[in-house]
Design brief:
By secondary structure, chain A is an all-beta fold. Chain A contains no helices and 32 strands. Chain A has one domain: Methylamine Dehydrogenase, Chain H (7 Propeller). In chain B, a hairpin with a 6-residue loop joins strand 2 and strand 3.
């Protein structure tokens, strides 16, 4: 496989050279270490930095070139939501403190540029529109909100979810937004009308555990394919013991055009875990990072096949994944506080 | 433990207020107890109207997500602490309504039961003692049913409202005898089979009960055991229950009350508990499931404590508004807390080393916090207590003497573990 121009999860086009891509050759190339477990990550569209949220309430920034680490302090809770402006100059962070913070991504010592109280309760999902004008957030208050990415002004609010909103994503055309909640309800919002256009069913990601009397699931990860043809929502399924984490990693894959669920991706060998990060590669395959009782894995799926064509066992439990704009490297934040960088090229 | 009355003890004859009354009157009725009963004092008679409600957060609620938050530390997790109605006392942001009732609560933050097993931890918290292969101790509810509930009460002295499953929890009573066990209301439903079959007339029902009593009396004259007594008692109580079945029907409460308590099982169960306490039930335990969050501790505490918070705050406020809090002991407990360390599943595991309990009512020194854990909650650093201390405190708050001796096969057994003592700072 070769890598043409890549589109990052933030929608930016990044020209890349054409190294040979071979997912089956994926191997560790760098370890960027912190002292607290990591929970999220995103690469900046210029390919200079990777950002990761940590359980010590900071966001860590590492420079790929030399591993220099910088702390971004501003939240009073964990940061699970990270998004970068397509041009790379601004980092947006959404925290479990309900805040969204703007940062100058490349500043020597970034400080909060703007802080908004975005949601009552956790901000779980955050995304920037492909044109960089709009920021979308979803939170535990069951709301989806749009903000001006430029000045933080509130633009609109979408209500209708009946449970925590776990993830939001812009369609690559920028005309649509999707939000997914705890119960796997996917709402498609038409941004030209501001109305709910349709609802997709990702309830495979959800279960009410009668034994423990609790809800388990939600879209822990979300990704559109670069061409906008596919929408993938990741999480856990087949839960038999919610409180022990007994459930299998899963991705619900939708045909965006028809709204049909075309695939339920799982692992060939069903192990316990949750797909906590998802990213489409421009070559058409999907990469999921799972963490759970079985440890951490990277799983590589083709849309037409239910199980992975390759899996890589990781050193530790994975909490997210992002694709470097070079289309070759994968950044995976892990429970042991290490952000591991893997290359999909032959050694 | 089988409780046979062939042992010579007359304890079975002297239950509840009868027991207390005979002791206080010094009429010799307690002769079979010898020294066991002498510690009971007349003042205990005055405590007979005391009530208890235990909210049992099954599985082990996290102290860090409830009563003893440690935000900003390596163990703190994602939730913040919020101020309460007691200046200087902060609790988790998951309990905003409860925070407004903190001036009516007391916290014990220095609990070290040193037990991480569900069953063993539960036993400690219900009996105030560690398991002992030689003897099984009665639960607090059974002691309350025996020593605080009215002898002639039409309703059970010990009711346990659970999310599911109904029946009798006779094992809770241990050597007190099965009649002091719990009546379990599965999902808050009235006791099973408490409606007389339509085809059975009132006259026929009375006749069959009369026949049962005659046969039972004849049998008891020859062979009396705790089980036969419980059998007979159960029939009598069932008859009374059938007369008062409406007490268990929480839908009799106005819709606005149901709304205040929350449109979920725990809300309905706590409203039912209030209803039962108002009707004179001595001990009600409400179990809320589940907090055994080895996986996704934070998501599950969001959900479970989201139910608990408003309901519990409403209950406390109601008990206060109705003038019941002075005579009702409220305890929020689990079998243990949860580990400060957050595992790779975003979970917390079992932790009996440094955790918390909340209490209210019965003249406790409310607004107080007893005990302290270190900065990240891994150890108790001040005023460490265990389940025995808590149990002594409950009994003292209820006006019972923890040293009162009970008879088990002629062997004197103090009501509470003599190795422990009450938390005096909590007792007014």
């Amino acid at each position: 496989m070769t890598a043409p121009a890549e589109q990052t999860t933030d929608g930016a086009q990044a020209p890349v050279s054409a190294p040979s891509i071979d997912p089956a050759a994926t191997h560790l190339v760098a370890e960027l270490k912190h002292t607290s477990p990591l929970v999220s990550c995103r690469c900046d569209p210029t390919g200079t930095f990777v950002f990761a949220g940590a359980q010590d309430n900071t966001v860590r920034r590492w420079r790929f070139a030399d591993g220099e680490q910088t702390a971004l302090a501003g939240h009073n809770s964990w940061v699970r939501g990270l998004a970068l402006h397509p041009a790379g100059q601004t980092l947006f962070t959404g925290g479990y403190d309900g805040r969204v913070i703007w940062w100058e991504a490349a500043a020597e010592s970034p400080v909060p540029v703007r802080v908004i109280e975005a949601h009552a309760g956790w901000v779980r999902g955050i995304a920037v529109s492909p044109d960089g004008q709009t920021l979308a957030t979803g939170g535990n208050d069951h709301r989806v909100r749009l903000w001006s990415a430029t000045d933080g002004a509130p633009l609109s609010e979408f209500s209708g979810h009946a449970s925590h909103v776990y993830a939001v994503a812009f369609h690559p055309t920028g005309a649509h937004l999707v939000s997914v909640d705890l119960k796997g309800v996917v709402k498609h919002w038409d941004l030209s009308t501001g109305a709910e256009a349709r609802q997709l069913d990702a309830s495979v990601l959800y279960k009410y555990d009668e034994g423990f009397r609790a809800d388990i699931g939600g879209a822990e990860s979300i990704a559109f394919s670069p061409d906008g043809g596919w929408l993938a929502c990741g999480g856990t399924t087949n839960v038999t013991n919610a409180f022990a984490g007994v459930g299998n990693p899963v991705v619900a894959l939708f045909d965006w055009q028809t709204g049909e669920r075309r695939q339920v991706h799982g692992a060939k060998e069903a192990y316990n875990g949750v797909v906590r990060g998802l990213v489409f590669h421009a070559q058409g395959f999907l990469i999921g990072a799972s963490g759970g009782g079985a440890g951490g894995y990277l799983l590589f799926w083709k849309p037409e096949e239910p199980t992975e064509f390759f899996q890589l066992k990781l050193a530790n439990t994975a909490r997210d994944v992002d694709l470097h704009p070079d289309g070759v490297r994968l950044a995976v934040p892990q429970f042991d506080g290490v952000l591991r960088v893997y290359s999909m090229t032959p050694v | 433990m089988k409780c046979t009355y062939a042992c010579g003890s007359r304890e079975h004859l002297l239950a509840r207020r009868t027991f207390l009354g005979h002791v206080a009157a010094g009429m010799g009725a307690a002769a079979g107890f010898g020294s066991f009963a002498r510690r009971a004092v007349a003042a205990q008679l005055q405590q007979a109207q005391k009530r208890i409600i235990v909210i049992y957060l099954a599985g082990g609620v996290s102290q860090l997500e409830s009563w003893d938050p440690k935000p900003g530390t390596d163990t703190g997790g994602p939730f913040r602490a919020i101020p309460t109605s007691v200046p200087g006392v902060n609790i988790s942001e998951l309990l905003p309504h409860t925070a407004g009732q903190m001036h009516r609560l007391a916290l014990v933050r220095g609990i070290n039961t040193n037990e991480n097993d569900h069953g063993k931890g539960s036993y400690i918290m219900h009996t105030g003692r560690r398991e002992d292969p030689a003897i099984t101790y009665p639960h607090l509810g059974s002691l309350a049913a025996k020593y605080l509930a009215p002898e002639d009460g039409a309703l059970p002295g010990y009711i346990h409202i659970t999310p599911g499953g109904s029946g009798l929890g006779q094992q809770d009573a241990a050597f007190l005898g099965p009649k002091y066990g719990s009546v379990v209301l599965g999902n808050g439903q009235p006791p099973q089979n408490s409606v007389r079959p339509e085809q059975l007339s009132d006259t026929d029902d009375k006749l069959r009960n009369e026949l049962r009593r005659r046969l039972n009396d004849r049998f008891v004259r020859r062979r009396r055991t705790a089980e036969t007594e419980a059998y007979s008692y159960s029939y009598e109580q069932a008859a009374q229950l059938m007369q008062r079945r409406d007490v268990f029907d929480v839908t009799k409460e106005p819709p606005a009350e149901l709304e205040r308590y929350g449109a979920h099982d725990f809300g309905r169960h706590c409203l039912l508990a209030r209803r039962l306490l108002e009707q004179g039930v001595t001990f009600v335990k409400v179990s809320h499931s589940n907090y055994d969050t080895h996986n996704e501790n934070f998501n599950f505490h969001l959900e479970q404590l989201g139910e608990f918070d408003r309901t519990f705050a409403t209950l406390i406020d109601d008990l206060h508004q109705r003038g019941m809090l002075d005579s009702t002991l409220v305890v929020v407990m689990s079998e243990f807390g949860r580990t400060p360390q957050i595992n790779h599943l975003y979970g917390r595991d079992h932790w009996g080393t440094a955790w918390s309990v909340a209490m209210a009512g019965c003249g406790l020194h409310v607004g107080s916090v007893v005990g302290k854990t270190n900065d990240n909650g891994t150890a108790v650093v001040d005023r460490e207590v265990n389940g025995g201390h808590l149990f002594h405190t409950y009994l003292r708050a209820l006006g019972l003497d923890p040293a009162m001796e009970l008879s088990v096969g002629g062997r004197p057994i103090p009501m509470a573990d003599p190795e422990a003592a009450a938390i005096e700072e909590l007792l007014a």
